[in-house]
Task: structure prediction
Amino acid sequence: MKHSRSRIYRREFLGTTARLGAGLGASAVAGNLLPAPAAAAGTTGTDSKARPRATADTCIFVWLAGGMCHLDTFDPKLKGNGQEIAGSYYNPIKTSVPGIQVCEHLPRVAERMDRFAFVRSLNHQFTEHTQAVNFVHTGRVASGTIVYPSIGSIVSHQLGGFDPNAPAYVVVGNPMQPRGPGFLGGKSNFVYLTDTEAGPSALRLPDGVSAQQYEEWTRTLKSFSEPYLARHASTPMVQAYASVMDRGFEMMSPKFQNAFSVADEPAGLREAYGKEFGQRLLLSRRLVENGIRFVECSFNLHFINGYGWDAHAFAQKRVHLLIRQLDRGLSALVEDLERRRLLDRTLVVVATEFGRPPEFDGQGGRGHQSAAYSVVLFGGGVRGGQAIGATDELGREIMERPVSIPDLHATIHRALGIDPEEPLMTPGGRPVPITDFGQPVEELFG
Amino acid sequence: MIRFPSPARTRTARIFVGIFLLLSLGRVLAHSREQASPPPGDQFQVRLFENLPADWHRDWSFEGLKPSLSWTTPVLGSRGLPARISPAGMTMPRNRPFALTIQGDMHLPQGDYEFRLRSRMHARFFLDGRLLLESAPPKAKELTPEEIAAKEAAEKKARDEAAQKEAEAQARQDLLRQRLEDALLEQNEETQKAVAAELEKANRRQKGEFSDTRPPAGIQDLVKNIPLESHRYRLRIELTGERLDREVSIVCRRGEEEPRLLGLGDRIPFTERAWNEWNQTESRRHKELEDAVRKPRLAKWEQYWDQRHLDQARSAAASRNPVRVEPAAGMPEFNLVDRFLGARMAAHEVKPAPLTNDYEFVRRIYVDVWGLIPTWEQVREFVDDSQPGKRDLLIDRLLADDGWADPWVGYWQDLLGENAKVYGGVPHSTGPFKEWIHRSFVEDRGYDRFATELLLMEGTAEQQGTIGFQQSFGSDVPMAEKAHVISQAFMGATMKCARCHDSPLNRYRQRDLFGIAAMLQGEPVAIPETSSVGEVPGRRKPAVPITNKPGDRITPSFVFDRGRDPARVGPDARAHRAALAEWMASQRRFAQVGVNRVWQRFMGRGLVHPIDDWDPEPQVSHPRLLDFLTEEFIANGYSVRHVQELILKSHAYQRRRDQELAGLRDTSGRHLFAAQGVRRMRAEEIVDSLHLTVRRPFKSERIAYQKVDYGIPERTWQIVSLSNEEDVAVLAKPLLQEIITLAKAFGWRDQRPNPLSVRNDDPHALQPLALANGDLMHRLVKFTDRSYYTELSRESGTLDQYGGRLFLNTLSRPPTEREEKWLRSELGALWSRRLVPPELREARKEEAGVEPVTVTDSIAAHQYIMRVRQGEPATTALTPAWRRNAEKVLWAVLNSPEFMFLP
Result:
């Protein structure tokens, strides 16, 4: 599948001065004892092949847990009846871009289609949740010799946070394994929160302790530790631990704590984002605004229809409730980012582990399908108003421009200015390229 | 526990001129017939036939068949089989296909009878030799992978729904019980009656009668009506199939009588309750039958190991050279370990670090042996003890306790890739076998037996047998993964490269790894496409050496001893595995690698370093010391505890840490072990010690989901990652997650797809954060009514006493003068005002225990998480001002680097 059109070939190593700052910040954050390679991200191409300029410096990776059905959202087809007639479950509607349709429960996205891009030809080989979730997050088939890092860990490892007092990688959702750092080690791990009202685990103040009191706590800890640290001045590991401790407590600063208070947002805006999922998106926006490099924002609210996006059986009948929240959240996010002039530097990817087949099972639900499904991208240099790739009349097979998971990863890396072929080193010294031969979907840019 | 004698240390043993009489493991493992019990009078006789030809069910010919097991039952029916017991005493699946006969005589009074054969299997019912009813075999249909996936998904949903229904019913009942209690308290009789009636109804719904006469899906229900004379009849059921774990029974009804299960003895009505009771009785009987077989087998297995260890000890004693190293002048020597090290240091004029003081020693030894810091009482007891040899006595006491096994479990989970999961299959997940690791060490079964039992891969998931090691979810060649694990763990051979190509780093070729994989599989193993380096045309040619192609079938081989002949070991996988275990354990390198692991764990660095890479020739810093320890190991039945004891009792282990001395090498670059280097506590030690210092057991949800149940953890090695890849609400277990989050930050692995000997200790910012601000720390430092520090605040007579105990209980040492001053400045002014008089204390309800979320509902999960986060209320026995400051002091001490790094 060749796609050589409109590549921007520029010998430009660093995007902006902001990016240079990003690189320097990285070594100070997340405890990287070695200089983070962010500043060097553009310079490692030893084969002197020029790579495109970065178009974004942060990423919000929206995760629709369970497997969003492409037919019922971004790739509508002939309508089925929820029983023996296969097809989409909802009516299609036109969008503001001629020729592109979406499902009727996505009216706000339809109105703003000029800013969204769909890839309708994503595919992989796993139809079982755990394997698919793992593959979409790591871009590699799980191996028995090492654990591969997630996309979020790779990005934070390569770029670090762009605020020295912020962690590089935050998960708004459960701390599941495929989101983890694998062989990159704990320093590339995420901090997470499952609840938009309270702060993240490990960055929350103790119950009933104010920020001021907490500062006193840390002062006490520091002064208490002094004699011990002085006695072990020549023990590098003790000193290293003390220094990451200092850096860690910087992240507890009120400024950064503030990044988590969604409650500070105007009521009207909170309303515009909608319910829990929208609030998570709003929090994600606050986070990228405050120096987080990569946010994974999970949409896993099972209670709405019983099984979330994993719409087997009866869950299918109420899946539109999820789609409407998605519609509302995404459209509010795109406008909010735009208003704050963050849209151009923030790449948003709306991904899921697989799509679902056009057929309905005995109880009216849908099974799993990974041979063809959709992903949505916007912001961060992505040209909106386009749908790349196409599936057949019932969305079962890809008719043009297949895009693999490594390709999707390469696309994200490309937008962030990371070389998808750069080797990462395992602790055993084995080089593992960032993506498994992934090729960025260049049509998305420019 | 049965301990073999330690002959090396007994005079009599030395008299034996050892003839190395190693019994063959294969002979011990040879299958023996299980005992058949005699048929009693008022019972049906059950006979089990195994390993039948695939088409046996066509003619049901029992002629010439010998039952492999027989037992009796009072009911003409079956609900499964007693498990097979392996020669090593492990529970095993039976050999398919099977047939089962249940037969007996029974008097039936005259009447019109209705017989119903209820069966999920292919079964026949005979009355006096006449075939009355026959059920069809279950439909054997080849399912496509999609159909299997769909079926599994549907089953999962059905299970979820059933679990939800059950949970809701339970919740309704709980609510009713609560209301009933309230009504009782209020003495409101009307409500009492109403609620009691409702509860009774709910009870009936849950446990009561069959509400529906239709059989559940999958059960064939065949009916035959027949008039019978009063007579003693011969009743017989025959059944056959691939699996016999499903139900079969005869429901009999005479005239207008209530239907019942056909059986002797007590009448069993055909109700759900009676049915369930019968099932339970049956499974108890099966357990008894299994135990009757297991006991003698296990005894024989242990006898075999005792004999084997004895023979090895004799042989070792016979060939052993006396230690000819003279003590070096001026070098400290607690035992022979020090003599070997001292000789080298004397030759290089290096003075080792001085001995630790008592406070340093007691902290180090508790954490190293039990994985827990000592309490202040334990510190005091040791430091105040004035008898000579108290260090050896303490070491003996710690090693005699089961607690010595705990730290080894985490070590071997990492090394063997124990990767059990709560939910579904996660890439490369194994079954659980941590309990087996634990028992092996509690009983100090011997390192060779440990390796052998692992390689045999026996038992069931429920008993956490080594069968769990056999699994690797989603892998197309699991035995290659296992070959990699055992080569690294037991032979110190790094073979991970050899998985996909010949190793560029050592001598191992891809076929060496797959040869061991084939030994484990008992047949040639083909190299899959995925275990190869694909050459993509136009791309860079792989720079690694390759001699095998995908699809090559690699026959069994043993790279560590080419003299062995895999062709002669026997026909099946078990024979191959037993042979592999025996070949491996008979290598001297096997024992050396094991000894080196023990040395590394306690000395910070191996005599051979790195400990996983012994190729081509290991660079041993002290070859004679390694020899000495290896001989001690073998002579003592491969006792890890014995080698550990030798090391712990040496001056070398008990020296002060000194980063500079620890790095000293001799002129040939060999380490001198003049001192130990820095050591940070491991994740398990941190989490367990934090709980210990506040004297609270783990507070966690049960680690369970659907059929999987690991119980409530008490130590960190027992926790299992939630593997909540679907973000399922019911798997939101916030208390457990607190523990996981902290443990993971410090290197505990929630995924263990590969063997790991030494964890990465590089500090990163999330570690101090996860410790200082994690929910677990927040919960543990809070002075609640149950916190030990609340008690300490109340019980201590003076602030100095409080401070002294606080320091001993956290840092295992008394405070310095400066620290005493600090304590007085932080807490001095509040000391006299710390207690709230009892009459002013607010009354408070007892806090409810752990409440697991039992519904698939994110809102309920969310509410539960919020409830957990609020945590237990602070104590009202102490004034808020004291409590705040005392909590701050405790928090500061626990988060200080000194807590983290061992003396």
Summary: Chain A touches chain B through 89 residues (CB under 8 Å). Residues 1-48 of chain A have pLDDT under 50 and may be disordered. The longest helix of chain A spans residues 211-231.
